[in-house]
Design brief:
Largest sheet: 5 strands, parallel
Structural class: alpha/beta
Number of strands: 9
Strand order of the largest sheet: 2-1-5-8-9
Distance between the termini: 74 Å
Order of helices and strands: HHEHEHHEEHEEEHEHEHHH
Radius of gyration: 26 Å
Number of helices: 11
Strand content: 5-15%
Shape: globular
Number of domains: 2
Amino acid sequence: MDRQSCGVVPRHFALSQSCQICHSVAVFVFYTGAMSKNQNPYSDLPPTAFWRTGVAEAGLFGLKNLWSSPWELPADARFSTFGSCFAQHISRALKARRMGWVDGEPAPGGTPPDLARDFNYGVFSARTANIYTAAQLLLLLRMVAGEVAVDVPEVWETEGRFRDSLRPAIEPTGFASVAEAVLSRRAMLRGLKRAIEGADVFVFTLGLTEGWESMSGQPYAACPGTMGGTFDAGWHRFVNYRHASIRQALEESLAILRRLNPAIHLLLTVSPVPLTATASGGHVLSATTYSKSVLRAVAGEMAEDHAVVDYFPSFEIITGPATRSAFYEPNLRSVVPEGVEVVMGHFFNGLSLTGPARHGVEAAAEAALDAAIARDMKDEELACEEAALEAFNAT
């Protein structure tokens, strides 16, 4: 076989039998030349950059370097925690390690731990209840900033009792009047402001893309008629928030947070807890995948675009192939304590608490922390309004 007979190899896919051997050799030489050591961006990557060594061979308990905080935080850094129900695991872990968890709205002095837990004190850094969507977060922050009047969001009446449409389950039996509900809302907003101003890191767990709004645009914490109020098809509408609107809500939320506390950082996570139910018209499995995918994409982009924003991969740790779903209860929804421990191990290992301490130890704060830990030990159940939707499952 001479050179001339193989001269057409680079330009032809349909080769004669006499040129196939020459073609194979030529292609092999071309690619082996390009794959020489240190000749491409993949050559010097660490083992964690490759699926085989980073995940498959590492296994669940060999996963390393999943997260490393880009921020040098003070040695006594303080954290405020809000968001969907999985955020409660983060607050409990911070309290259990006696780290700087901010309680902006503690229970009144002398309140027994059981009673305080029943009325949702010490669950989040203020009595916001679960904040499932970015739209809900933005509304609350706009109220704190004075951009929305405190009495504008609806108060629902059900059988002579009143529930705050922003947090319908915050009082076990509802409020006695609209005025009482608004008064409690004011206290919550003051607590939320304190939680922002007193924190180095505002941790927010994104939970859902699905939600409900009024025709005026007010987002609700739950669908009217499920935990209070009466559903009105002419006034209430289902919304499945898209990437752009979620991103915009988080951008505006970040701007308010930084205005209230110029030194604050925003740490985003995505809840690994699947949807209890979907109103999208599709299967709940597909709806869950859509919801978590969109939230994960938005969180990643926010972290890429803002130095004061980061993303912690709690979602990936719980749902990743290495776990083989072992971190879920038999209902394939609730996360088992062992899974939470693994998540929090990665969280604390990734923190950089190397800056000078900037917060003094306050006796009142220590007492509040002791009370919060006592409440957590008494009741391991999470406060999760969205889970109540299962009551409407007819089968």
